[in-house]
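Session log. Operator J.P. requested a structure for one protein chain; no other inputs attached. Running the standard single-chain path with token output.
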Amino acid sequence: MAKVVLGFAPTRRSIFSAPDAIKYANLTRERLTELGVEFVDITDINEEGLLYDDNDRIKVAEKFKAAGVNGLFLPHCNFGTEYVVARLARELNVPVLLWGPRDERPDENGIRLRDSQCGLFATGKVLRRFQVPFTYMTNCRLTDPEFERGVKDFLAVCNVVKVFRNTRILQIAPRPFDFWSTMCNEGELLEKFNIQLSPIPMPELVDAIKAAKEEGTEVAKVLDYVHCNMCVAIKPDEMENVAALKVAMKNLATKYGCNAIAIQCWNALQGEIGIMPCAANSLLNEEGIPVVCETDIHGAITAVMVEAAGMDEARGFFADWTVRHPDNENGELLQHCGPWPISVAKEKPTIGYPLAFDHPGAVEAEAKHGEMTLCRFDGDNGEYSLLLGNAKGVEGPYTKGTYVWIEVENLKRLEDKIVCGPYIHHCVGIHKNVVPVLYEACKYIGIKPDLYDPIEEEVKAYIRGE
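Structure written below.
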């Protein structure tokens, strides 16, 4: 599971009960520990372990920065000091979770000790004034299911933002000439999002393949893994090239500090090593290193976002929208030559030949059915958005490659969105509902969430804890 660390800064205001605020801060600490949440605390900043003094805020910011926290959790243990937490949130520039424990019944004298909800209203306004995006978790009890769900979803949001802001993509050769749809603006991706490309020419990959073969050990491990987990229907020397390509791409990703790869999968590579890269891509995807085809940089960005939203608990798969289902009016075929990870398959995958090429190294397997999320990060003319929504796997005719027939609520509506853009025929799927997480993450990374079904109010209701 992905590692996410929260900065924990419970807050209070002086005119309400300090002892009660301390009590609820400690109860929240205990609950986070129960849930297995890793957090950096502020108990060493002052005796109360609470944030309400601006001088303490400076120390808290320094501590959280040094710890490299990925998100900020601001429990309002009584009303809270809104300007102090807003200053802290703006300085840290990480996702912010705003929450307060539900207030108790007034005592027999009509005294209220905390007014946490009222403080949340105030802080929300001040965060907006500071132009700090934040996630609001409904005013609930620590034992309510909304609390556990809200915290875990926020951790996933933090993971998406962390990965997105630190993405570096190994670009192996330029896009194929015919694929004008996969062109991207490298400078704009860096300027807007800090997404970096590490382009290398095809000869550098070929040299890395030769080096992997000469070293031999890692290639042998890959061959052992493949023969245990896949059916091999290609020649031994071809399979050795597949294994060496997998090792070479991983080594190059490590060399250049990359967390994803986009490869020009045809046709220069076939002239050099005589195989399709699909099976090698599949093996790397299974390890959690997303590899996408046809030098689709935006596809690689989509892949890292999807896996981060799933907290690395499920693998994503890079697919083409291809043809409509012959019998289901809302059905569509998702397919590619074979880059999908092994764990996605409903059967033991076979390494063989692709549909449209003569060279070996593709993978054949139908993917598991069930509920899934489909999405696509893309942009043109300086504007970027994330197409996303739900689908389910359904029965359909056999086809070559890695494939799954899916059904959506309204295919005509989805088709129109893809054609009218800024999207293309590529998407990434995952067998997990991460739509609310990706929707919420968009506010922190500065892109527009674009739901292909009219479910925005449902998504917002889920995030609110309804």
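Operator note: Residues 168-464 form a domain with the L-fucose Isomerase; Chain A, domain 2 fold (CATH 3.40.275.10).
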